[in-house]
């Protein structure tokens, strides 16, 4: 068989629909999750169905092939050790982060705003706190979240910062640790004119015992980094902050995670430099040797936000590498019913522990039509334990051919089913 794909053949008696033969219903399901370290290589391995169905008047049977359009990378959903492995103190628009033993992982840690070219910290040039150090809302499933949020309003911009203790990637394939703080910003333009907004987070580095902590990165193996700007192709998914400038014996290693998946904008650049380089009230930071007193700048360069628009970006800092938030609210897709032209089939999405405000969009090709359900549907709050929700669409096949059916989640994950419908031989 092609690519080792497993094929299933089911022959139904004339006049018997797929929906009526529930005992032989094919469940085409694949998880949309990003959890752990398993890669499912499905480039040639497709989920292959052949359904033979005779319609009214003895029309030829229909052959249906359903497979994934692209390989999908998933991760095993390893259990989480609930013990906090990092500490944090609430502090307005940025948390102060320390080790489990309450040792320092930085000195100062604060954001600078760039609003239409004006550089400021929260409260320095007007504005007000709508919320300050408020608790985070529970998940839709009722789970408590460890962290806090602050909301700062200036002019027509509403800037929300959420700091949350989240799991890190497992280092032993056994359990994930609650070992990093995810700092997430959402900037909304509530006015009638476009605004340009950027943010720089400044770290005065101090890792456990060292005020001049050096750096390393997975895309630059074997190198100690100092006085360098990481951007574009040189910007890694995470930066290691070393207590000692020795890759074989680095002491405590803190991690700055800049790649948090497609739902959160990645930093534009990270500057590893000396404390005070470029001053404390300006925007740019020159990349110079630290000379025993290091600093790190995480930049989200200015971008235009249109009226009614928003921009979401963030990073994580702590003991380990953060897991992408889009791994939450993962979705299973099920297809049932008849794929004969003119007949109806059902798309069912099962959402596990949905994210607050999560929505799903069904993108149908030209050869299919939506019959019941809106194209974009909010995911309802779960009422079960474990928390799960369902979203359902009813669709009709209009013609034979190849049809890419896509289901998009607001968490940033898109799942595609390539459905090929032809007359059976």
Structure description:
- The protein is an all-beta fold and 425 residues long.
- It folds into 2 domains: 156 residues, Sandwich (Immunoglobulin-like), CATH 2.60.40.10; 243 residues, Beta-galactosidase, Chain A, domain 5 (Distorted Sandwich), CATH 2.70.98.
- Strands 7, 12, 13, 14, 15, 17, 19, 20 and 23 form a 9-stranded mixed β-sheet that branches.
Give the count of helical stretches: 0
Domain count: the total is 2
According to DSSP, the number of beta strands is 31
Which residue ranges are poorly predicted, with pLDDT under 50 across at least 5 consecutive positions? Answer: 1-57, 71-77
Give the structural class.
mainly beta
Task: Calculate Rg over CA atoms.
Answer: 25 Å
**Largest β sheet strand count, sense and barrel closure:** 9 strands, mixed
The termini sit apart by: 18 Å
User: According to CATH, what is the class of the largest domain?
Assistant: Mainly Beta
What level of helicity do the residues show? under 10%
Q: Which topology of the largest domain does CATH recognise? A: Beta-galactosidase, Chain A, domain 5
Question: Mean pLDDT score, rounded?
Answer: 83
Overall, the morphology is elongated
Tell me the strand percentage band. Answer: over 45%
Secondary-structure arrangement, i.e. CATH architecture of the largest domain: Distorted Sandwich
């Amino acid at each position: 068989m092609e690519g080792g794909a497993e094929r299933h053949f089911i022959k139904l008696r004339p006049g018997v629909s797929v929906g009526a033969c529930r005992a032989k219903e094919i469940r085409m399901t694949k998880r949309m999750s990003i959890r752990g370290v398993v890669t499912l290589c499905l480039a040639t391995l497709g989920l292959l169905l052949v359904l033979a169905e005779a319609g009214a008047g003895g029309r030829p049977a229909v052959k249906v092939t359903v497979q994934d359009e692209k390989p999908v990378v998933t991760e095993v959903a390893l259990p989480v050790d609930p013990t906090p492995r990092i500490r944090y103190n609430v502090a307005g628009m940025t948390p102060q982060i320390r080790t489990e033993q309450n040792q320092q992982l930085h000195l100062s840690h604060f954001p600078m705003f760039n609003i239409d070219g004006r550089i400021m910290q929260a409260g320095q040039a007007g504005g007000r706190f709508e919320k300050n150090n408020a608790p985070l809302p529970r998940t839709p499933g009722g789970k408590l979240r460890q962290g806090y949020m602050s909301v700062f309003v200036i002019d027509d911009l509403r800037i929300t910062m959420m700091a949350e203790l989240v799991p890190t990637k497992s280092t032993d394939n056994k359990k994930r640790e609650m070992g990093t703080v995810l700092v997430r910003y959402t900037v909304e333009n509530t006015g009638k004119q476009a605004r340009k907004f950027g943010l720089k987070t400044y770290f005065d580095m101090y890792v456990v015992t060292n005020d001049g902590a050096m750096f390393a990165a997975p895309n630059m193996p074997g190198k100690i980094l100092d006085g360098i700007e990481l951007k574009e192709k040189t910007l890694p998914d995470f930066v290691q902050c070393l207590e000692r400038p020795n890759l074989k014996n680095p002491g405590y290693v803190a991690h700055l995670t800049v790649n948090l998946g497609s739902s959160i904008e990645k930093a534009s650049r990270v500057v590893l430099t000396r404390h005070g380089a470029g001053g404390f009230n300006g925007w740019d930071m020159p990349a110079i040797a630290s000379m025993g007193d290091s600093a790190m700048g995480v930049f989200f360069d200015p971008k235009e936000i249109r009226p009614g628009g928003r921009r979401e970006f963030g990073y994580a800092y702590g003991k380990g590498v953060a897991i992408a938030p889009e791994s939450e609210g993962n979705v299973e897709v099920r297809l049932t019913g008849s794929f004969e032209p003119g007949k109806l089939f059902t798309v069912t999405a099962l959402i596990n522990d949905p994210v607050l405000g999560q929505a799903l969009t069904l993108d149908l090709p030209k050869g299919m039509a939506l019959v019941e359900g809106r194209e974009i549907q909010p995911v309802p709050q779960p009422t079960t334990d474990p928390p799960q929700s369902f979203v359902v669409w009813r669709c009709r096949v209009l013609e034979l051919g190849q049809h890419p059916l896509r289901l998009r989640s607001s968490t940033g994950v898109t799942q595609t089913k390539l459905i090929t419908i032809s007359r059976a031989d």
